[in-house]
């Protein structure tokens, strides 16, 4: 299969500022600033980066996609939360109950993310970004299972998850109900394929249930079965 998971695309009003926040929070480095966005690269063995691209679209409701960060210890968890708050993040109420053990925060542009405690076994061994957590039905998890060729590591009660065969970040879907769609998702998966394979991979994804939203030649924007956008671009 020519397709690869290349990272997470984050739409931002201030791509440079958002990149600085996330690079500082994750301990990653800003690799470059270019017309196609500000790229933050991992320093911890994570297999992909984050790309921050300019967008004027306002955030009007809770994101459908967010990141779950893991913790090596309680001290590590507290330090991560402290770093986020010191750097412009804030606590965020998404309806979590008083007994929740994870901490819900928002970055300086309001994008929700979670810091999970060290005793969380589901994300154990997944790396600092433990999960790309998505709102979606099981059918969407099955779509991504087929699209990426990653095994299903969870499939129960409409909740699904996939993970690369070699480990690393999981992609999870929480099952219905799914929040209404309001504009383009602020966080979107980015996939890559060699230029010679881009058309064939686009056709394969459509055959699996995706829909083409835009085709700029070297970047194709598609929607998965739950209408969550993702980007397919030629390999860097």
UniProtKB/TrEMBL annotation:
Q: Which residues form the Glyoxalase-like domain?
A: 10-116, 132-231
Q: Which CDD domains match?
A: VOC (cd06587)
In the UniProt record, the signal sequence range is none
Q: Which residues cross the membrane?
A: none
**Record SUPFAM superfamilies:** Glyoxalase/Bleomycin resistance protein/Dihydroxybiphenyl dioxygenase (SSF54593)
Query: How is this protein named in the record?
Result: VOC family protein
Native source organism of the sequence: Myceligenerans crystallogenes
């Amino acid at each position: 299969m020519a397709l690869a998971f290349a990272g997470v695309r984050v739409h931002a009003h201030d791509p440079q500022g958002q990149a600085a926040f996330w690079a500082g929070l994750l301990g990653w480095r800003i690799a470059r600033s270019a017309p196609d966005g500000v790229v933050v690269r991992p320093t911890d063995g994570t297999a992909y980066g984050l790309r921050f691209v300019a967008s004027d679209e306002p955030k009007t409701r809770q994101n459908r996609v967010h990141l779950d960060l893991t913790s090596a210890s309680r001290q590590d968890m507290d330090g991560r939360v402290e770093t986020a708050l010191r750097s412009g993040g804030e606590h965020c109420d998404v309806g979590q109950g008083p007994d929740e053990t994870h901490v819900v925060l928002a970055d300086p542009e309001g994008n929700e993310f979670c810091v999970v405690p060290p005793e969380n076994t589901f994300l154990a061994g997944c790396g600092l970004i433990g999960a790309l957590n998505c709102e979606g039905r099981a059918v969407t998890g099955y779509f991504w299972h087929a699209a990426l060729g990653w095994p299903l590591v969870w499939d129960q009660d409409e909740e699904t998850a996939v993970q690369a065969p070699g480990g690393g970040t999981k992609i999870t879907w929480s099952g219905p109900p799914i929040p209404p769609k309001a504009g383009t998702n602020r966080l979107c998966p980015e996939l890559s394929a060699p230029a010679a394979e881009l058309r064939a991979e686009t056709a394969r994804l459509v055959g699996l249930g995706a829909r083409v939203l835009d085709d700029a030649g070297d970047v194709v924007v598609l929607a998965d079965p739950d209408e969550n956008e993702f980007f397919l671009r030629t390999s860097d």
